[in-house]
# Entry
Amino acid sequence: MGLIVQKYGGSSLADAESIKRVAKRIVETRKAGNEVVVVVSAMGDTTDELLDLAEQVAPIATGRELDMLLTAGERISMALLAMAIKSLGQEARSYTGSQAGLSTDARHGSARIVEVAPIRVRAALDAGAIAIVAGFQGFNRGTGDITTLGRGGSDTTAVALAAALDADVCEIYTDVDGIFTADPRVVPAARKIDRITSEEMLELAAAGAKVLYIRAVEYARRHGVTLHVRSSFNNNEGTLVVNPKEGEIVEESIISGVAVDLSEAKITVVGVPDVPGKAAQIFTLVASTDANIDMIVQNVSTAATGLADISFTLPKSDGARVLKALEDSKDQTGFHSLQYDDQIGKLALVGAGMRTNAGVSARLFTALFEAGINIEMISTSEIRISVVTRADTINEAVRVVHSAFGLDAEDLAKVHGGTGR
Ligand code: ASP
Ligand code: MG
# Structure
């Protein structure tokens, strides 16, 4: 008998019919002789709708009440799903995050899991029941308050439970057939990946691939949880995200995928004196705002002026805060001016085989050149190359790059549902 954790996303639970369909699938897994723990997201776009509602009653909702509101979404799904399973004659019990023993720190809206003690979940399984757990939420021991783990947090809930219960696999059910070489909504010729290492998946998630959230991948990597990302609309095998043990040889594809991120902006600090300590000063300041910066480029200063420009990317949502902090420090830092650009797109090419293959960047840049797309920034890691282009050229960029690396499939990928919101 195996223990399987299954997570169903909002698009797989969009309405009553979908909930009944998912219930059937869960019952089949149970009847095949497995213990089953199910983690649910809120139905459809519920979380976004609750956020819109909050904004209408108060422009700035406080973390505590917002978390209280948002966690309601997952409670609706868990209770309905438990009812649907029971009506199929199988025992099911639903639990909120706190009932399932997920304690977190006190950071509302982006809490981190500090301990997982799924005592009641284990007891439900021992009693022969299917346990249903509300994703994306926990509670803080200190304050006694309900917290949320940040957008897409249900993936993390599922992985954390899989680790704590020592599950055989954590299945992430979604509206596409697995992880693709590019977003199939943008690149119809995207190809499903059968197997990918968690290292590559981390790079893809960090670069904006939305199918799995980065914190869930990190957690799975740290705790050795195998993920299986698959569609809830069919029985096809999806994508396995594996953690090769040290020394284990895995066949590495040169390129595993292309990810795109349109949520970032670029700040350029113009006219920074080219003397030791200026970058330290600027980025210490930026770090103090808690912004997550990504690419950094400094141009060579000209001998005539002795001034350099430093550009970096960061989430648009952090833009105003960082600009203000920099502006306030203008006299100490001694730069000339600031430029803010939120019309950028970031494309990242990821593949573990890049480590041992020359010419990957040349091929990438050539493909973009042939499509007439200008590159504004470049950064690389061992297994990733990222470039920044204009936002309105990014979809074209990902299509030509996908094609240039021979990733295009013969058949077009199928998106089963969801709005991709
Ligand atoms: N419902 C939450 C969200 O939409 C959590 C999740 O779906 O994982 O972000
Ligand atoms: Mg959701």
Summary: Residues 10, 41-42, 47 surround magnesium ion (ligand 2) (CB under 6 Å). The domain at 3-175 is CATH 3.40.1160.10 (Carbamate kinase).
